[in-house]
Amino acid sequence: MNNLFIFLFFIFVQKKKESTDLEVLETELEVKKLQLIREIKLVEDERRSRFNTQPILNQRYLLLRMLGKGGFSEVYKAFDLIELKLVACKIHQLNSQWSDERKRNYTRHATREYNIHKNLDHPRVVRLFDVFLFFIFIFYFLFLFLFYLFNFTIILFF
C-alpha cells in the first residue's frame, strides 16, 4: 500500500510538472505570437506611410525602417549621413483634414514640448539636436539621446 501511494504521488508530481511546463510553453508562445502580430502591423504601417518613398530627410537622415507608429507620429530607425551613426527619427504630422483650430492647438502642443526639451540635459532624457520644416503641415524637432540598451543615438522629429 505504501509503495502504491509513493507511485501515485510520483505520477501526480510528474503530471503536475508536465502541466506546468505546458503552461510555461503556452505563455512563451503567446508572447511570441503577440510580438509577431506587432511586427506584421509595423510592416504594414511602414508600407502605408507617406514617408516610405522619401528615404532621406533633410539631406541628412537615411530612413532604414519603422520602429513604431502612434496616432500622429511615426518613429524610424535611421542613419545620420553627417555624424555617421544610427539615430531614431520621430515624425509628428498635422492632418490636412483637421480644422485650423485643431492644427493651431497641435502646433502649440509640439512647440511647448520643444521648449521643454531644449532646456533639458540628462543622460536619460532626450536632448534637442536639430529642428527643420519638411513639407507644408509637417514639422520636425530632432532630439539626441544616447540609447542605453542599444547604444545608438536617437533623433526625434516632431
Description of the structure:
By secondary structure, the chain is α+β, with helices and mostly antiparallel strands. The chain has two domains: 1-48; 56-154, Phosphorylase Kinase, domain 1. Helices cover 42% and strands 29% of the residues. The protein is built from two helices and seven strands; from the N terminus they run αββββαβββ. It has helices at 2-48, 100-118, and strands spanning 56-57, 61-69, 73-80, 85-93, 127-133, 138-146, 153-154. Strands 1, 2, 3, 4, 5, 6 and 7 form a seven-stranded antiparallel sheet that branches. Strand 1 and strand 2 form a beta hairpin. The longest helix has 47 residues, at 2-48. The protein starts with a helix and ends with a strand. 16% of the residues are buried.
Give a brief rundown of this model:
By secondary structure, the chain is an alpha+beta fold.
Q: Can you identify the CATH superfamily of the largest domain?
A: Phosphorylase Kinase, domain 1
Number of domains: 2
Gross CATH architecture of the largest domain: 2-Layer Sandwich
* CA-CA gap between termini: 75 Å
Briefly note the CATH topology name of the largest domain.
Answer: Phosphorylase Kinase, domain 1
CATH class of the largest domain: Alpha Beta
- The structural class is alpha+beta
Number of H- or I-type helical stretches: 2
Number of strands: 7
Largest sheet: 7 strands, antiparallel
Average predicted local confidence, pLDDT: 76
